[in-house]
Amino acid sequence: MSDGSNYLDPNRPDAVRLSVSDASALGEAALGRIGYGGDDGRIITDQLIDNSLCGYRFAGLPRILAIAREARPGTPAFPLMSYAKRPFPPSSTVATMSAMSRSIAAPKSRLPKRNRAGSPRSASTTAISAGAYYLERIVDAGLVGLHTASGSPHIVPPGATRPALGTNPIAFGFPSADGPVIFDIGTASLMWGEVLLAAETGEALPPGLAFDADGDPTQDGRAAARGGVSAFGGHKGYGLAFAIQALGLLAGAAIPRGRVQDYGFLFLVVDPGTLLPGNPFAEQMSQLGKAIQATPRRPGVEEIRIPSQRAFRERERRRAEGILVDAAVIAALKAL
After folding, report:
1. pLDDT digits (tens, 9 = 90+) for 15-68
2. CA 122: distance to chain centroid?
3. How many domains does the chain have?
4. Cα separation of 112 and 94, whole Å?
5. N-term to C-term CA, the chain
6. Are 69 and 103 in contact (CB under 8 A)?
7. Are residue 237 and residue 287 in the same domain, yes or no?
8. Contacts for 163 with CB less than 8 Å, ≥ 6 apart
9. For residue range 283-302, what is the model confidence (pLDDT) as tens digits?
10. Is 75 a domain residue?
């Protein structure tokens, strides 16, 4: 490719290390071939590359393969439920980017001070990016944010044989005097992107977490892709996944196709200055982080980290060293 920075890694002979620019070019080209060209392709690729930079292997370029399977470019646009009602294309990333932008604008609007909380929402066809990406931009505007995303069924409820809930992530973002603090988790024991990646690479999934189409445990990615996965933490993760599915309904998930088990993306955004006189929140968040990190450590523990600290460090390192992409994924992207 362009700068000669791509090579097999001796520690991962099944992967190729790409520069950010070359990984972006690969992603945009693949998306263009399945109908997401121009700005749509650039917006989606930028988020997937950021996922890779932060160390989320399954949430990077492999997600394009999921888009190719699930999305239907060119179909009529679904409505984005927001302060300004206008249609957006059925790429959840593009729609969610718009909802996120309006979430930032709403708390800073001329609404009465007591009402300065924004909750734009969108419904679409496929979730493809980590909530942390959106929350970081909300936090950069000095706001506190909550983002939930319901999905089509992939989580198998305890005792069931078929999936009934999405993997349903939830993310929080907080401004701090030391930079953004983001916490982003999925409610599944395995994120669906991990299952799809295993289906492409042939890697075995961890035991006891995935199920085939008959509801029997499996470690085979392709079999799990036709079945589902468990929630994390037993009934606690299951209950949280259920609650996020309900918030998806609040976001309009059932509007496009009449399905209550579908995609819905909700943002709740608050200007902390409307709640705290003088807005000391960012400084207080910094103090909270430092207090936690100053907790006495067990022998052999180098540091106590706070959420997002590892991901932000990874991002800086990988910008310099490049991104590892599975060779099987690269071949599949080129074959789209």
Report:
1. 889 999 999 999 999 999 998 888 889 988 998 998 888 888 778 888 888 788
2. 15
3. 2
4. 30
5. 19
6. no
7. yes
8. 153, 154, 155, 156, 227, 228, 229
9. 999 999 999 999 999 999 99
10. no
pLDDT of residue 40: 87
Q: Which domain CATH number covers 85?
A: 3.30.1370.60
| Whether residue 18 is found in the same domain as residue 101 | no
> What does the block give as tokens for 131?
């909530």
User: What whole-number distance in Å separates Cα of residue 169 and Cα of residue 335?
Assistant: 30
Residue 232 backbone dihedrals phi, psi, to 5 degrees: -75, 150
Question: In the 8-state DSSP scheme, what is residue 77?
Answer: P
Place of tokens 């646009």: 77
CATH number for the domain that contains residue 331: 1.10.1530.10
Q: Domain of residue 336: give its range.
A: 1-70+308-336
Q: What is the mean pLDDT of the chain?
A: 83
268 φ, ψ (degrees, to nearest 5): -120, 120
Q: What CA–CA distance (Å, rounded) separates 49 from 248? A: 26
Pair 264, 149: CB distance under 8 Å: yes
Looking at the structure, do residues 175 and 315 belong to the same domain, yes or no?
A: no
Q: Give, for 117, the enclosing helix (H) or strand (E).
A: strand 117-118
**Measured between alpha carbons, how far is 80 from 307 in angstroms, rounded to an integer?**
30
Q: Are 256 and 152 in contact (CB under 8 A)?
A: no
pLDDT at 248 over 50: yes
